[in-house]
Amino acid sequence: MFPEKNAVDLVTAVSNENLFNNLIHQLNKDFQLANINVKFSESISSKELIDELSKAIFYLLKNEYDSYLNLIYRIDVSERELLTLDLNSEDIISDITFLVLKREAQKVWFKSKF
């Protein structure tokens, strides 16, 4: 499926499968269902998507922790993978962003195949 180890490679692989727009739709859907007023443009670039998602996650972690938890639950990010993250790492936001993108990519890949 998607064995990539970082967000840039993952989004590139999703784009190569022609699933980038589906990824954006899935992100928008899950943010809306979590009652978070964030919407990603369909004309956004891969890099911009990663940056905007990272900013949204950072904001939620700092200011609306309950909404952050609701989003993580809604997206169904692996709790096991979240627990392995180093909370003192400078890259914690990019790690969470990667896990969110990874789960959303899995969803759109499965929907496209089955």
Account of the 3D structure:
With 114 residues, the chain is mainly alpha-helical. The protein contains six helices and no strands. The protein has helices at 7-16, 20-33, 46-63, 65-75, 79-83, 92-113. Helix 1 (7-16) packs parallel to helix 6 (92-113), helix 2 (20-33) packs across helix 6 (92-113) and helix 3 packs across helix 4 (65-75). 25% of the residues are buried. The model has no long low-confidence stretch (mean pLDDT 94).
How would you describe this structure in keywords?
114 residues; mainly alpha; globular
Q: Report the helical percentage.
A: over 70%
Structural class: mainly alpha
Query: How large is the share of residues in beta strands?
Result: under 5%
**Low-confidence stretches at least 5 residues in length (pLDDT < 50)?**
none
Sheet with the most strands?
Answer: none
Q: What is the approximate shape?
A: globular
Contiguous helical run count: 6
Q: Give the C-alpha Rg.
A: 13 Å
Mean pLDDT: 94
Total strands: the figure is 0
Termini Cα gap? 13 Å
Order of helices and strands: HHHHHH
The multimeric state of the shown protein is single chain
